[in-house]
Structure formats: C-alpha cells, structure tokens
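Purpose: get a first structural picture of the assembly so the mutagenesis plan has something to point at.
Setup: two entries, given in the order below. No constraints added.
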Amino acid sequence: MLVRTLSTLECTKLLTANRIGHLACARDGQPYIVPLYYAHADNHLYAFSILGRKIDWMRANPLVSVQVDEHGPGRGWKSAIVEGRYEELPDTVGHKVQRDHAWAMLSKHADWWEPGALKPDTFPVSDHLPHVFFRILIGQVSGREAVQS
Amino acid sequence: MLVRTLSTLECTKLLTANRIGHLACARDGQPYIVPLYYAHADNHLYAFSILGRKIDWMRANPLVSVQVDEHGPGRGWKSAIVEGRYEELPDTVGHKVQRDHAWAMLSKHADWWEPGALKPDTFPVSDHLPHVFFRILIGQVSGREAVQS
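Result (structure tokens, whole complex):
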C-alpha cells in the first residue's frame, strides 16, 4: 500500500460524494463522537439532529471535527478530515434562506434523517420533535489516500 | 425504524466483533477524529500508531472517545460509543507483558497495521519507524440499535 496526501480539491470531492461521516465535539477536554448524515454545499456540511448531548456540547463549544472515508477498490481507501465550526440555523427571521437550503440539500436523500431523528424507543421522525438544523463551516480540510501498490 | 438502547453487554459484544472504529481526541477544545484499527480485550481497546498529531494530542490530554458501528440487515445498524482514557505502552521495563499482549491481539488480523503505520509517500511498516503502542481504557460505553420495523 502506498499512501499519498489528497489535495484540497480531492478532499472536497470526497465530502461531496458521500453523506455519511463521523462528527466529534468536545466539552471540558472530553471528546464525543457520533455518526453524521450530512450534505456538502458551499463550504459547509449541512445536517440536523434532535436535541441531546451533541447539540448541547456544540452550543457550548462550536469547534468540531468531521471525518469521512471511502473504501475500495481492493484494500484502498480515502479519508478526509475537516476542522470546522458549528453554526445553528434557528427557526427565526433571518435564517429562513439557510434553513430552506439545508432542507433542500438533505431531503435529496431518502433516509438522510434516520440517525439524527431517532431517540431510543420512540417512533420515526415526527413534527412534534424539536429538530435543530445546523451546519459545519469547513475551516480546514486534509486527507489521505491509500492505493494498493 | 425502531431504535433501542443497547445493554453494556451488547455494546461489549459489538466492540469485540469489530476492529475498525473512529477515535476522537481533543486539544484546547478542538476535537480531532481519525479511523482506528483496534483489538478489544480486558476492558481495553489495543492499537498502535506512528508518531503524529493523534499521539501528541492524546499524550497532552488522555480523554478520548471511540465509536464503532455495524450495518445491516437491511437498513438496520448498531452503534457503540466509548468514553475512555489513553494509556501508552512504552518500550521500557514493566510494560513488556502489556506490549506483548497488544501485539498478540493486533497481529491476529492480517491488515491491522495499515492506517496506523503509514504516512503519506512512505512505504509500508518498517522497523525503523517509531511505533507507539497504546490502549484505551474503557470508562463508559453506551449504544443504540436501529431495527427495521
């Protein structure tokens, strides 16, 4: 296996081509990592979630990291790591355009809402659950690719 | 999809059955997330890496999070999240048993060393690279399962 650094453009393509990644946030030095369904557009990763630890922590400390990987062919892989900043898109005047954009991005995918929308022992997404739309502003992105030599 | 909480035993089984996960560490409030090849034994996740940002950060702040997921059947999934503590297994007297144990755990798998062992534009694992063996002491583990209803 030979490993090389991905260019920023290659990292961006990897982010655009995928919609499942992993998000890490941190509070008082303790990281917390969860799967993330997202849509990439305009230097942001758009996502949503119901209220919970992840949102609480990102509201307190907006610094996050998102990692996306892709496998194959063979044993090859690509990985991109984003350092970014949490930005909430609240349901208030002034954010309608951004929320509509997030919704348009995310609703292109049939099952985008599942992990973010579900809490244990409850039924699927309901209008009564308080959803938080947010986006991650991509600050830095770096990546690597391993190719079978 | 119906989502339920996994028991500690179910989380432990998920950790044992897999060997690829994602690790997050943090420095000065900035999380950093990378793929992790690990082996689970004795309430620890064993792994290794060459020197770099991940090791630097975990040496400075040993609080980490590891997440492991498993997909299928259908659109179902399981996910376990560990809150843990980084423990280095240095190559000094007193750690030989732990290092040998780590090696035994990890070397059961043919390609366990790949992402940890490679830096861009270098060739595969060499005795000349300074490898760091470490383990994550599992402090807390929690998990969820989504089942197609």
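Chain A has a mean pLDDT of 83.
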